[in-house]
């Protein structure tokens, strides 16, 4: 498989704080990658740079061989994003939200047909003309999947998409997420839910203090418990080190 | 431009459903007009005095009501991360600025359209030069929202956004408010378009400068 995303020597600092420190990462087309790490590890910053929302301080991101810094609009057209924020307008109906974002992504033909089809795939067609404000958290997340996949992106970036979802809603979200869109869509997900990620992902990354400290295919990891131990050893070691240096 | 119109249409559709911004702007504007008409009640019989006071009253009402509306303009986009959703779309960031400027201007025009008849009745005016007053109000409002939309975006991500916006906005709109008040005064005392040509020129230059500058720097105001 070819790399769809190449991150080379990427660094980002906010003032004197380094959020990302010289990161290199290759992600192959169709891979499902989970990124773990404590708060402040740089996970969201990495995703925001990949989606061209923020510029790196150093280094490059290539998406399908296109430099993100030079052609951000082209890159944004290839990416769908799901977050704990829904990116939905509460006062618009589900259909109006999707039609609006379809137009933002330059979709002009057969908008209604495409919107109906994607609403059907996330089980919201019957409630298409209700305002988003009346939806439950789970329904809003399903609508945000529809919004993210509307323009048939090649890459799906997800930043803690399970936040605020109960067990049932999370399972439902996962089912819709995996069954909607093309199977060769590359999915990158930031999460704290090791069990769920272990079920659906091909590759697991652990980030800490702006660096990738662990990067293995799921097939190379013995079990969820083994991965959890690895995670805790990386995170706790650094926490201890920080404690000692602060002391 | 098409994307900007979609953004403006989305904003107006949302606003017409809740009327949160529109109602508060309108009530504020009318309260200002009514309070000033009561305060200056003794001067209503003195046309010379009223000609000096009334244009200022009208623009105080427009400016304060507009500031109130602008403070909500980007606050709505911050809910549910909608601004980030827009920033993730493959559109030029200036399209967001233009769309927001259009929707803010439309809301202000609606408030002005409803305020002026009350102003005419309470201040006992008879406006004969309707195209003249419409032109002055259009140019003044457009200049106001061009600056206001940019500063609304800038202050939306700050903690003290309600305080920050008027503090930044009011000094910057002085160059548009002064010619607008002077031109309104001239028009209300039966002056023709020819007698306000210098004010109109000033307003056009100001509008163009801020609309262009707004588009150029908007990207930096919404950058993370």
Structure keywords:
heterodimer, A: 247 residues, alpha/beta, 38% helix, globular, B: 224 residues, mainly alpha, 82% helix
Task: Report the β-strand fraction of chain A as a percent range.
Answer: 25-35%
The main pleated sheet of chain B reads as:
none
Strand order of the largest sheet of chain A: 6-7-8-3-9-10
Shape of chain B: globular
Major sheet description of chain A: 6 strands, mixed
Number of strands of chain A: 10
Any overview of this molecule?
The complex is a heterodimer of chains A (247) and B (224). Chain A is of the alpha/beta class and 247 residues long. In chain A, 38% of the residues lie in helices and 26% in strands. A six-stranded mixed beta sheet of chain A has the order 6-7-8-3-9-10, sandwiched between helices. In chain A, strands 2-1-4-5 form a four-stranded antiparallel beta sheet, with helices on one face. Chain A is globular, with a radius of gyration of 19 Å. Chain B is mainly alpha-helical and 224 residues long. In chain B, 82% of the residues lie in helices and 0% in strands. The longest helix of chain B is centred in the middle third of the chain and has 30 residues, at 93-122. The mean pLDDT of chain B is 87. The interface between A and B is medium-sized, with 29 and 23 residues.
Helices and strands in order:
The complex is a heterodimer of chains A (247) and B (224).
Chain A: E1 3-14, E2 17-28, E3 32-36, H1 43-50, E4 58-63, E5 66-67, H2 72-78, E6 79-83, H3 94-104, H4 111-121, H5 137-149, E7 155-159, H6 167-179, E8 186-190, H7 194-200, E9 203-208, E10 211-217, H8 224-246
Parallel strand pairs in A: 3-8, 3-9, 6-7, 7-8
Antiparallel strand pairs in A: 1-2, 1-4, 4-5, 9-10
Chain B: H1 2-18, H2 20-39, H3 47-73, H4 75-78, H5 82-87, H6 93-122, H7 130-156, H8 161-172, H9 174-188, H10 197-221
